[in-house]
Amino acid sequence: MMLFNNVVKQTRRTGITENTINKFGLIFLLIVSLSGFSSIAQEHSDSRWVTTWSTSPSTLPNSNDEPSVVEDQTLRLIVHSSIGGSSVRLRLSNLHSDHAIEIGSTAIALQAENASVQIGSSMQFSFAGEASVTIARGAVVFSDPLEFTVPQLSNLSVSLYIPQRSGFLTAHALANQTNFISEKGNYTTSTDLPVDSETPAWNLLTAIDVINDNAVTAIVTVGDSITDGWGSSTSANQRWPNHFARRMYNDESSKKFAIVNAGISGNRVTTEGNALFGQNLQARFERDVLALSNVSHMILMEGINDIGMSPGDDLIDASDIIAGYRQIIARAHANGIKIFGATLTPYADAAYYSTEGDLVRQQVNSFIRDSGEFDCVIDFEKVLQDPADPLHILPAFTEDNLHPNDAGYKAMSDSINLSLFD
User: Fold this and answer.
1) 340, 376 in Cβ contact below 8 A?
2) Which of 108, 290, 331, 369 has the highest CB neighbour count under 10 A?
3) Could you give phi then psi for residue 308, rounded to 5 degrees?
4) Which residues share a beta bridge with 376?
């Protein structure tokens, strides 16, 4: 309509009659409707926008590694919605690259199977009315809103065509989801993708927002690999936040929320180590939680890597993790977000376990339970621990003594009192 209005202004200046303009308008609208142009939906300022899915950029550039590179190829990323909606917009991030990147074409569809999408479901996004967009180094861009029905609890396919050599691609490296990179060419709207390779990473895409008419807000689950879902079945959406969303939507009596995931495998509250594991929580909190749409609650479960990955013999003190928690609590409350603390789960016989480290874990858990500084406590430790040996996770819930399996993640979800969010 913006284009049509501009044409109208020009034709009026040249003396063309109103009747002619109206006829032209009908023809213009017919052409647009037949051409498959993306429908522009609500404005970005609409208060009903809520984030239905998110992921946190993790992998940092590392001079010792070869950069992730695509050129004249299409990325097809598979993500799982929480709440549904009638309109959608994307957030794309070039956070960790050292130069601008061009996205030649972008589309969304309903996944059919693997790299294929449901026939007729694909629609293209625009960016300020253009099909392509260049994302500046370190920047985030929003797509234009698009009228597209996003079903709740459904797999979506987001396709991004990268025409020029990409260099290092911003990524959530360990998605626990198989994603796809095409052979040469733009296949963003193709039903079937000619696959060149598979990848566990979500590249460039960091959030999907929807318009939901029911005044829905979001709960952000913040943490490390246990929130990220490491150890769950690949491409099966068995992370505890996925289980939590399904449980909430299947309970007719509970209030509904979007459930989004800000977990990064290996992440720490206070420090950083391996380049795969992202910036510390203090550094990433603004973009990974506060910048999302309509966040009302968050659940924080992080700190076990601060303990287990302490360098050498320099074991972290519980007070350092607690100081980090206090900063996150203050920043959440300053933004009107309720923050629930989740206890750190047992890890005896995990690869980086130590008796001294476990004493730190227990001190941290005492703060979470007893300080009163969190708005509420979710006691995941009690859910997963072996009653016969409380320093261990119940064997039926883990394969590596640190990360839950599908059954363990479901048990975590089942333990949450849904009425806490009323």
Assistant:
1) yes
2) 108
3) -70, -30
4) 340
Tens digits of residue pLDDT in 28-74: 444 444 444 444 557 999 999 999 999 999 987 664 555 568 999 99
For 360-369, the CB contacts below 8 A with 24+ separation are 360/307, 360/315, 360/316, 360/317, 360/318, 360/321, 361/303, 361/304, 361/307, 363/318, 364/303, 364/307, 364/318, 364/321, 364/322, 367/318, 367/322, 367/325, 368/325, 368/341, 368/342, 368/343, 368/344, 369/343
How far apart CA 355 and CA 283 sit, in angstroms, is: 29
Which residues have a Cβ under 8 Å from the Cβ of 409 and sit 6 or more positions away? 229, 232, 238, 239, 240, 242, 243
pLDDT tens, 226-267?
A: 999 999 999 999 999 999 999 999 999 999 999 999 999 999
Q: How many residues does the chain have?
A: 422
pLDDT tier at 23, thresholds 50, 70, 90: very low
Locate 211 and state its tokens: 């318009």
Domain segments of the chain as ranges: 2-35, 65-207, 217-421
**Structure confidence at residue 60 (pLDDT):** 74
